[in-house]
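INPUT
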Amino acid sequence: AQKVTQAQTEISVVEKEDVTLDCVYETRDTTYYLFWYKQPPSGELVFLIRRNSFDEQNEISGRYSWNFQKSTSSFNFTITASQVVDSAVYFCALRGAGNQFYFGTGTSLTVIP
Amino acid sequence: ETGVTQTPRHLVMGMTNKKSLKCEQHLGHNAMYWYKQSAKKPLELMFVYNFKEQTENNSVPSRFSPECPNSSHLFLHLHTLQPEDSALYLCASSHSRAGGGEQYFGPGTRLTVT
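OUTPUT
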């Protein structure tokens, strides 16, 4: 079975705080791909990052960083020094060998000025 | 135009109307998807097309009828909808290959059924 769990439904932080969004996945595929998307209030899902199952190297892009750990089946997303513009719903997703994507239920992040 | 476009952006229709949603991708992808996103609910996959062939239909009611004339265009034909069908309908596309490419989404059509 393929499944993505985002246990945090809503998170509120004060601007400039760091925040980590959790993502836990389940898959039986040996090759798979993990993604993070951002959905601002406008509604469009914006692709942020893709990680292949055979590449556990963590990645940093500006204030964003991702921690992929196969041992715990997790792919967590950290925003450093959060800003109001980071307020959005964030989705973690999984793709196995086929064309179907499995999305988590999303984490709604509110950054308070 | 670049990326994935959807028209119309907003649609209000009565339960007896017939309307169509259109999606077009300019990314050279060959897999296309329809998702439904209701308020306070997770994304629901509706249909998947791979090289114009439907490969997934997640028990979607027949009042939703997809059409994929080519790899760049995807339609969702709507008829005799119910108020609970009011939602944001998102189209997405991706490469259809073992490389596992990401999906790119359109801006969505916000549908209200009255």
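end of record. The CA atoms of residues 56 and 70 of chain A lie 7 Å apart.
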